[in-house]
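<goal> How does this chain fold?
<body> The protein record starts here
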Amino acid sequence: MRKFIHIDMDAFYASVEQRDDPALRGRPVVVAWRGARSVVCAASYEARAYGVRSAMPAVRAERLCADAVFVPPDFARYKAVSQQVRAILLRHTELVEPLSLDEAYLDVTEPKSALPSATAIAKTIRTQIREETALTASAGVAPAKFLAKIASDWRKPDGLFVIRPDEVDAFLTPLPVTRISGVGKVMDGKLAALGIRTVGELRTFDAHALEAHFGRYGRRLSELAHGIDHGAVNPDRPTQSISTEDTFANDVPLEATAPMIRTLVEKLWNATRRTERIGRTVVLKLKTREFRILTRSHTPEAAPQSAEELACIALALRERVNLPATTLYRLVGVGLANFHAPDATSAQSTLFD
């Protein structure tokens, strides 16, 4: 039986801002640039009380909370604090898998510290984070990764929740299926059509029938409903993709996206220089005025060798967008995926929508 902890910093970006500026404490803080095109990066719990959430348009956040204090994001500062937190986690185990700047999985089955249990380790980590960063973190402890992540959200903010092995079934049974990783709006609708609304109902559904409906993911759904997750903490997860995107000040036609694409390519190319792995698949992302998202990808015979070559491929992918010429776009993004080691064998070129 393995022992997992999921650590999740509470309203991380906003909490850092409130910590560093006492005038912001107790006030509804929204980390975002102001403007019609900006989106919320983070919201303090005071702002969340008004319905403000990350990823929503900043103008909507302003309407929901007229007293909100908008603070432009400072990612360099957040990254420095994240590294400080990670150093704390590494005192207890080398098996730390960061998911983002503000959350990580730990496998503490065989911890470095002499603490008697995973629960004791989680308590100690939360105390150390509070004392050394003046920030709070929530933690979940469980015998499976996906359960630890659910648990860390159970008593936020500044909470700890433990799911013991003999409690897994009772804990999962009443949960809505949307609490399972990967079950979004679309999958939730498909499960609803089968009469499945809770994890308990999912557990009683025949695994072979789920696999017939949803392929391999159907089998995984059945396993998760029974509390089975074979996922391991991977401290050296290799780069799979790198991307960058930006929103236009005003909606533009497709042909007017070229300058922004070239700017994003420069940022992307510089970012790839910080990894030893090589990305071969070029991805173009577009979002229309109506918020429809399109992606187009191309995998050349050899990985792009320069920013200019990358830009040429990204620009050419626009020809694969089969929407009316009158369509306007609010956002464009460029990414690299399909990363591999420099000596890996090249795959056959593919072009797909």
